[in-house]
Amino acid sequence: MPTNASAAAHALADVTASDSTLRRFLHGLPGVDAVGLEARAASLGTRSIKTTAKAYAIDLAISMVDLTTLEGADTPGKVRALGAKAVHPDPTDRTTPATAAVCVYPDMVATAKEAVAGSGVKVASVATAFPAGRAALGVKLADVRDAVSAGTDEVDMVIDRGAFLAGDYMKVYDEIVAVKETCGAARLKVIFETGELSTYDNIRRASWLGMLAGADFIKTSTGKVAVNATPANTLLMLEAVRDFRAQTGIQVGVKPAGGIRTTKDAIKFLVLVNETAGQDWLDNHWFRFGASSLLNDLLMQRQKLATGRYSGPDYVTVD
Fold it and tell me: Is 160 considered catalytic here?
């Protein structure tokens, strides 16, 4: 942590003064050693977590899940059922922690809010023409306003990947700033769609760009493309938030999303958090899993630890 965080933050603010200064900063970030990054991610993924530590990790992972439904066929009934599951993931065991949030489309925010009322479970809404982000800024901001007016606690926006890949970093920066302002009190998660950014260097640049623009969380993916969250791209983003806090004193969360389906996977990611960013991020205020099927496996493994046996196929609901 810098001794003068405000001075460090001011110095970084200068890099967004113009397109040229922003480009110079982003392209001046250290290049990513892809082989080293993937080797470290793989190495941390081999850590063995046993018994008491595993039980703690499972409960922690459950508390970090953004239980998600983002389908064209979503109905109010499905969202209400998902909200009930988020509040009481295992109705037979009230010691099971609630999930962090329910994530839905803007038109389902009001229904989700009713379903989780009084529980402490947050409601998150995707916005900005999710998942492609191919819309004019006015349309994107209207999308955000709809979610905010319905009472969302968090907004998950997608960046304009086309603009980013074309090198129009200031356009991406300005859009994030505008969305952040429109969010009001709602926390902002900025989705990069890392599977479309092509290189680790681009993921590092996108991470810093999002944080400079005011993201409360940086998020890997929409879950709607072939390559979503991986240990390597999440490790890279964890390094970015760690380094950003060291320079500015500002802490930013991380949310890997898409493709994390098993307890074993979730624990690997928790090890990455602990060993890279540190224990300050081992809390659902700073780390989330964007998932739908993951919760079911966590519940099955939790019961296995408690009873010594796996439950039947009807133990968890099919979302």
Answer: no
